[in-house]
Each structure stands twice: as structure tokens, then as C-alpha cells.
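Thread amino acids onto this structure.
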């Protein structure tokens, strides 16, 4: 009887330790596809499909760490402009949602050979400090708006994971990403007005 109790106690302790470390479940990377399969991203095994937005084309989360990625894709034919102009036009939904907003960027990037623009936006929603990475990729066919975010508490230790998700974004026919593409150039780094 004592052996059974000790075994159960050790088993429960081991399970709690694995959950606390985030190692329970598969850690093999998974590929997630957007609605219509116009974009794919690779994420560690702990990420799951998760409903984030009514119009989301790809929505995933790592619930334990409170990390999220939302992708909205729009045909280039619907907007005549550059990645920068598109980004300026669509970031309003974050601006309207956060208080105490501070925005840095843009950073010019290349993701799978496509031009991209990224902003970091910090603010508070319902008393919770949030950090967003808002990235727009322009391809021949689409503007892909990728919004990755985390609580401010989690962001410092998870920014690389979020950047790797963004760097893995690709349209069908593109090979999966190697480690995250580095930003090419910082165009401007100043808080938003």
C-alpha cells in the first residue's frame, strides 16, 4: 500500500513538473494553414488552432504561455499600395484597442523573399499589459497581416518564438523557413504620437 501511494505521489509530481515546464505533449513542429491555404506557418508542438477573430484566416495560440498569432490575408487587387501603406491602413484596430500605446518601427524585413514591414506596439487592454508584433508581408497575390502578441510579462522570454512564427510564414510552394530572417534595416525607431 505504501509503495502504491509513493508511486502515485511521484507520478503526480512528475506530471506537475512537466506541465510547469511546458514539456507535456508533443514538441514536434506543426504546420498550420490559413483558410484557403494561401499562407502557412510553422509552430512548436504546443501551439493549437484557437478562435481569436471573426475574420481570422489563421489563428493559433500557445495557451499555457499566453502567446497568440492572428493572420488576416487580403488580395493585392483589393488594395493598391506598398506593404508600408497597407500596414499604415490596417494597424488602426490595435491603436483603437489599447491604452497608453507606444509604437516602434517600422522595421523593413524580408520573409521568404517577400518585402515585409514590422511594428512593435505596447499598451494595455483591460488592465493587462500587452506587446504586439504587427507584420505585413506583400506577395504577388496577397497582403498578409500577421499579428503576434503576448502579455508584457511573457514577451521578453517569448519574442524569439513569435519572430520565428512570423519568419516561417509562406505561401504554398515556398519551402519552410530556416531560423528567423533577421531584419534588414531599421527605418525608424520612435514612439508613436
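Threaded sequence (193 positions):
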Amino acid at each position: 500500500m505504501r509503495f502504491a501511494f509513493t508511486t502515485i505521489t511521484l507520478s503526480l509530481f512528475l506530471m506537475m513538473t512537466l506541465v510547469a515546464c511546458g514539456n507535456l505533449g508533443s514538441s514536434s513542429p506543426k504546420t498550420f494553414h490559413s483558410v484557403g491555404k494561401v499562407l502557412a506557418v510553422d509552430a512548436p508542438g504546443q501551439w493549437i488552432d484557437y478562435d481569436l477573430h471573426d475574420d481570422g484566416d489563421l489563428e493559433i495560440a500557445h495557451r499555457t504561455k499566453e502567446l497568440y498569432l492572428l493572420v488576416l490575408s487580403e488580395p493585392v487587387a483589393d488594395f493598391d499600395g506598398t506593404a508600408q501603406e497597407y500596414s499604415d491602413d490596417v494597424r488602426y484596430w490595435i491603436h483603437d484597442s489599447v491604452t497608453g500605446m507606444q509604437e516602434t518601427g517600422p522595421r523593413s524585413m524580408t520573409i521568404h523573399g517577400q518585402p515585409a514591414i514590422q511594428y512593435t506596439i505596447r499598451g494595455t487592454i483591460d488592465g493587462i499589459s500587452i506587446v504586439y508584433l504587427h507584420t505585413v508581408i506583400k506577395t504577388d497575390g496577397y497582403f498578409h497581416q500577421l499579428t503576434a502578441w503576448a502579455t508584457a510579462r511573457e514577451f521578453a522570454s517569448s519574442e524569439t518564438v513569435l519572430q520565428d512564427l512570423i519568419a516561417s510564414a509562406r505561401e504554398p510552394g515556398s519551402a519552410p523557413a530556416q531560423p528567423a530572417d533577421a531584419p534588414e534595416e531599421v527605418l525608424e525607431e520612435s514612439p508613436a504620437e
